[in-house]
Amino acid sequence: MNRGVRTAVRRALRQRLPAAVAGRERERGSGAGAVLVFALLFLVLAAFVVDGGLSISQRERAADIAEQAARYAAQDIDEEQLRVSQGRNAPINYENCAQRVAVFARQSGLSAADVAASGCTAASPQQVEVRIRLTYRPVLTGLFYSAPVTVHGTAKAESVTG
Q: What secondary structure letter does DSSP report for 92?
């Protein structure tokens, strides 16, 4: 390249350089908005994943406690009737179902309000049905939604001999 062309290119660059620098100044910080939006989106998705998993876990726990409480209530059988029938019939003392469910719920660590809201929904000498209420607070969505969440579990147990 000859010397005259180099000089002309340098002059042109010097004239355009201040305009390019000024354009960069106007764009400064424009990426911060995008970073903020993606960070917020990430937090919302994390909240749904964490609290969604907690909800599933608490529903399973309520169902497990209901199954165990139903078995516990159904184990209270009329022993005299069992002896009289020579082991063919084992009627449940279904009148005690609500008390036995409350005892089991307390032993399982449920709050007093949850114990009071739990109990037998149906009871007969052959079968008991139990409903357990479980209340919990969300972890991350609790920042936006402060009310506790309530889940229920229901289970049946029957008296079988054999």
A: B
Angle at which helices 97-107 and 30-74 pack, to 10 degrees?
140
**Alpha-carbon dihedral sign for residues 150, 59, 142, 49:** negative
Q: What per-residue confidence (pLDDT) applies to 20?
A: 55
Residue 134 and residue 65 in contact, taking contact as beta carbons nearer than 8 Å: yes
| Domain boundary assignment for the chain | 27-158
Two structure tokens written together for 94: 């279904």
DSSP per position, 97-130? HHHHHHHHHHHTT--HHHHHH-EEEEE-SSEEEE
Q: What tokens appear for 96 in the block?
A: 């005690």
CB of 92 closer than 8 Å to CB of 77: yes
> Under a CB-based contact definition with an 8 Å cutoff, are residues 152 and 58 in contact?
no
Note the pTM of the prediction, 2 decimals: 0.74
Question: For residues 8-38, b (16+ Cβ closer than 10 Å) or e, as one string?
Answer: eeeeeeeeeeeeeeeeeeeeeeeeeeeeeee
